[in-house]
Description:
Layout: H1 2-14, H2 17-22, H3 24-34, E1 39-45, E2 52-59, H4 61-67, E3 73-80, E4 88-95, E5 101-109, H5 114-127, H6 131-134, E6 138-141, H7 147-154, H8 159-172, H9 174-181, E7 195-198, E8 204-208, E9 213-214, H10 218-222, H11 227-235, H12 250-256
Parallel strand pairs: 3-6
Antiparallel strand pairs: 1-2, 2-5, 3-4, 4-5, 7-8, 8-9
Amino acid sequence: MAYKEKAIASEQVDGSFKDQFKRIYDYANELLARNPRSTMKVKVEDGGSGPIFKRFYCCLKACKDNFVSCRPIIGLDGAFLKGRYGGELLTVVGRDANDQMLPLAYAVVEVENKDTWKWFLELLVEDLGGEEVSSSFTLMSDQQKLKRLMWKAASATQPQAWELEMRNIKQLNDEAFKYLLKIPPSWSAEKLFEVRHVSQAGDRFVVNLDEHSCTCRKWAISGVPCCHSLTAMKFLNLQREEFIPCCFRKTTHEETYTPIVYPINGQNMWEITPYVDVLPPPKRIMPGRPKKKRRLEQWELVKDDNRMTKGGIKKRCAICKQLGHNKTSCTQSTEPMMSSTNEDEVAL
């Protein structure tokens, strides 16, 4: 009863789902009217009583212009829509000069699979300048379980660390290992290094300011000069700002947010388009009892016990000396747990 009353109250405040699906074309037209040269795509399928909503794509003109000043990195992600008719929300974001997320485009699809992602990315590539421009972009996604291992291998600063992470990837997925092997790693430059600097720890690193490289590999990975290269610049009286990429500068950050996303009017002021009213998609009823919680990844199942004692000290096991648990729950304990019930007291 409470669920039905909540649904009735929500419909009176937010409106009916069916009425909003009917005006999906009016909504896209209003976005185009307020933000010209944007891209809106509405995909429907034929139904017995009219067109049925299937997918919606939106990429605003300001977002296209903003991405010109960003780094060529694109992040992909998807999320469940918890409305009455469900669905999936696919999003694409970039990274600005301040290393913050910049929305580029989004799409509402029926389900997250290979076909919907292909449809979404094909439209995105067309909006960002075509295949010739988009071929230099780097895509990041959490849809692959090998993401963490791949980034460990990509950010490895020494060949030995890279080989270790590649062996871990091979054990988990041999196809991914073969794919990554096609990308040849580069570890050193062919030219003679001109500037040398010894760190406080005694490790020697070689800096080549002409090629913007250092053997610690931090400059090549992050794009920001490392402490060894900064020392070399200071020794040669060079301006450090000249070695900073344009995407990290303040002027670039200001240019990124110069285009404006204009808000739209209320529904009562939308222009009525000549398209047929769109019907909401059918509800997808899965077999079995409905799940209320999403499926957790393997790394999310690990319990993070940060509880402390009264003195503000984390628990430490007396057996394995690790933090986060005590000897009662230690997996390395070889002593059997003693029962609190005395055998003599057990009734025969």
